[in-house]
Amino acid sequence: MIRIERLGVRLPGFSLGPVDLDVEQGEFFCLLGPTGSGKTLILESVIGIVSTSGGRIRVSDRDVTGLPPEQRGVGIVYQDCALFPHLSVEKNIHYGLRYHNGSNSDGHIRCRDLVARLGLAHLLDRSVTTLSGGEKQRVALARALATAPSVLLLDEPLAALDPCFREEIRDLFRSLHQETGITVLMVTHDFTDAHTLAQRVAILHDGRIEQTGTADAVFRRPATVFVADFVGMRNVLPVRVERGVLTVDGLNLTFPSQNGHHRFAAIRPEHVHLQPATRNAGEAGIPGRIRSIVNQGLFAELAVVASGVTIKTVVLTSSLVEKGFRQGERVRLRIDPADVHLI
Fold first, then answer.
1. What's the predicted TM-score (pTM) here?
2. C-alpha span between 135 and 150 (Å, rounded)
3. ∠ CA 324-319-163 to the nearest 5 degrees?
4. What is the DSSP string of 31-62?
5. Helix (H), strand (E) at residue 167
6. 3-class DSSP assignment, residue 216
7. pLDDT tens, position by position, 278-309
8. Which residues 6+ apart lie within 8 Å of 338 measured at CB?
9. How far is CA 88 from CA 121, 124, 300, 315, in A?
10. Distance of CA 79 to the CA centre of its chain
């Protein structure tokens, strides 16, 4: 387990914390946030390679706040793998054993098992400079696990990989976690990683944690405007709620009353359903007009103006021609009240 209490780090132009975070024993936890939000600083504080200005860090029920990195029982895999270019694959994997207190024979047995599990046997004599991105990540993972750490830290390990390698390494992380039960804290900005791997996630913004919960809960019920935007709720609109009617700059939506004081409505673009407009006077839905279409390949993002409010939606690219969606066309929008999240 990892317990971070009131952690602070002060750097020129940036302040992290205070951060409180609990990662349970055997949990796969993802820390998400944009570049520069402080995610890597938290990992480097846990491993002990940055100076903290306050707070405490516990790993596996030990207070490691003042311990050097080699005594913390923590392994780390960086985005760029940080392999030693002058060493072979085998020597990279065994590197940490020289600083590890324990049986050297046990360490070599463990390395042999990791080499077999990660499919690295045919690469042992190779220079790491000749490896593919996926191969480098497997070597970095073997090196991190060679000393039998109680906690594994992953710093954007998939960000630099091609899509085919990314899926391969993601599957590898998932299977290793299931097999070993090791506690994992992973930094990422990709919600696919979080949905695929994590039991829980936390969203970091400007050095502060804004929300913690399951990936699905954070994705569907963001607690702040920043989180809503970060998880892809492209429609975050200022609102007024009176007697069960939600008003957005003159656009009225029937909405069931909720307790609490709300200032924004967040709607995922895939929950905004689009249909061509007809001449039927009693046609259901909100009338609007397509302002722009951005083709993303398999799908397209459309901006629709309704009563002066711009609402984003997505449709399959094939539907653009099939349903006659073109810039300037009149359409009708349907939004299920259950898909409107109030903040």
1. 0.86
2. 24
3. 145
4. EE--TTSSHHHHHHHHHT-S--SEEEEEETTE
5. helix 163-180
6. helix
7. 766 556 788 999 999 999 888 999 999 998 89
8. none
9. 12, 7, 46, 49
10. 14
